[in-house]
């Protein structure tokens, strides 16, 4: 099966996967995702001829994934009985990279077309469940266990939701579980408002639907939410240290533009 059935934001799963696969071919990779490379070879026979370019979507996706992985590992070390909800999982192999203990129940959620592709290219594993659903439909929460700590990972998801949907999602999670951590990434208001002209997003016939200049303010959506911190993205030290030289030069120049460094941010909350 190909990914030709994907529409809108679902189409960004392929370039994100390609970036992670190409990163794995670097002498000192940022993420080191062997599964991404294996899946990419099966999806695209010409993949081996490609080189890591300067695509912001690709490089930022790799840095973003690394930050989310590091936070997830830390949370699961402290909460080995947690439930993990990986929302808008796409073709990401996070559950295999992190390899959580059997005491953790992990749920990957995405649209049915995406889940069908995952089933074909990524192997099943114990305590790992795939959910075919629209994240904005709260009915999917009825399919996961409650009463345990929860780790919610919403990578590359929030900018494609409306602010109303984001508020509902955070509120539903905080109301459903006794304690937990929510990891997400956001774009600035300017990035949101200009996304309709972004050439990368236009290529995939999609755009952003919300933006936040102060994502810490998302904690105001629910009285139990508390902002913890953020991780660097466009100016990430690991990006500047490990990305190919041509990419580093591009990002150094871009980061000189007003607002560029914090146009995309990775943040986490607890409750």
Please give a quick description of this structure.
The chain has 271 residues and is an alpha/beta fold. It is 37% helix and 15% strand.
Q: What does this protein look like?
A:
The chain has 271 residues and is an alpha/beta fold. Helices cover 37% and strands 15% of the residues. The protein has helices at 13-24, 34-43, 56-78, 94-98, 112-121, 163-176, 189-193, 199-203, 237-242, 245-254, and strands at residues 83-87, 105-110, 128-132, 150-154, 180-187, 226-231, 264-270. It has a seven-stranded mixed sheet, with helices on both faces. Helix 5 (112-121) links the parallel strand 2 (105-110) and strand 3. Helix 1 packs across helix 2 and helix 1 (13-24) packs across helix 3 (56-78). It is globular, with a radius of gyration of 18 Å. The N and C termini lie far apart (41 Å).
